[in-house]
Automatic annotation (TrEMBL):
It is a multi-pass membrane protein. Keywords: Cell membrane, Membrane, Transmembrane, Transmembrane helix. The chain crosses the membrane at residues 6-36, 43-62, 74-90, 97-116, 145-178, 190-209, 215-234, 241-260. Its main location: membrane. The keyword Transmembrane applies. One of its GO terms (cellular component) is plasma membrane. The lineage of its organism: Bacteria, Bacillati, Bacillota, Clostridia, Thermoanaerobacterales. PANTHER family: MEMBRANE TRANSPORTER PROTEIN MJ0441-RELATED, MEMBRANE TRANSPORTER PROTEIN-RELATED. Belongs to the 4-toluene sulfonate uptake permease (TSUP) (TC 2.A.102) family. Pfam families: TauE (PF01925). This is Probable membrane transporter protein. It is found in: Cell membrane; Membrane.
């Protein structure tokens, strides 16, 4: 019984992470379940199931605060669902070859980006000289929202299926820096997209019998509590503070993953 109490707590922590920064709780759930004796593939399956519930709860909270916009994000969602199936199918075939370290470094870099974004006061001014000098790649992506959304979504989905994450970090980056969403809208929308991606990946793992349902359900109950509480808090702070919170949490998670490897 103590095992499931711990999983309930793990789910609660994962929900807080998702509610605050719109990211998957994979960096909390997968290592914790592996320590409890679950196979990595089973831990990834459970993580995707828990991510699905956390994302739906958090997305609903952001929707209630009018911080959810699927106008452009829907194409990322569609692409990510297909990509997650591909990732979940090849996940059992790929050994851990520095993936955790690479993802940790990615989180730290992302943390720096969001921290400085918060320090500069939120969304960039599209009329200033920096905006006019944006790269040709970003111009191309922004001028072809459907195609770029689908392609980026497929990439996010594949990585999600491989790592057991809903892809929240990558989706948030795309929405904020490519699609030019505000931080609140970016987090709210990324969590809804992440719900579709994670659900697709969880189904893939269930088909391949890599989903410990009882552990996943206990974790999901915990994430309901943590996700709702954290999302309500995040919607009360301003854009500048939220960017710094996102940056700080990303940095902490990245460092923890590097130390714990």
């Amino acid at each position: 019984m103590m095992e499931y109490v711990l999983i309930l707590f793990i789910g609660c922590v994962a929900g807080v992470v998702t509610g605050l920064i719109g990211a998957s709780g994979v960096m909390v759930v997968v290592p914790a379940l592996v320590i409890l004796g679950y196979a990595t593939s089973d831990a990834i399956g459970a993580s995707l199931f828990i991510d699905t519930i956390a994302s739906l709860v958090v997305a609903w909270t952001y929707y209630q605060n009018k911080n959810l916009n699927l106008k452009q994000g829907i194409w990322i969602a569609i692409g990510s669902v297909g990509g997650a199936q591909i990732g979940s199918l090849i996940s059992p075939l790929i050994p851990d070859v520095g993936l955790n370290s690479a993802f940790s470094i990615f989180l730290v870099i992302t943390a720096v980006i969001f921290w400085f974004r918060g320090a500069k006061g939120g969304a960039p001014d599209l009329n200033n000289n920096v905006a006019t000098q944006q790269s040709s790649i970003l111009k191309l992506l922004r001028s072809n929202v459907i195609i770029s959304g689908l392609l980026l979504g497929i990439l996010v989905g594949i990585i999600s299926g491989l790592l057991g994450a809903g892809g929240g970090v990558m989706i948030l980056l795309i929405l904020v820096f490519v699609m030019q969403y505000s931080m609140h809208e970016g987090i709210g929308t990324s969590t809804l997209i992440m719900a579709f991606t994670a659900a697709s990946g969880a189904i893939g793992h269930a088909i391949s019998s890599n989903l410990p349902l009882k552990a996943a359900i206990y974790g999901a109950i915990g994430t309901l509590i943590g996700g709702r509480f954290a999302a309500r808090f995040a919607n009360k702070v301003n854009e500048k503070v939220l960017s710094k919170v996102v940056g700080g949490v990303f940095a902490a998670l990245g460092v923890i993953m590097l130390i714990a490897r």
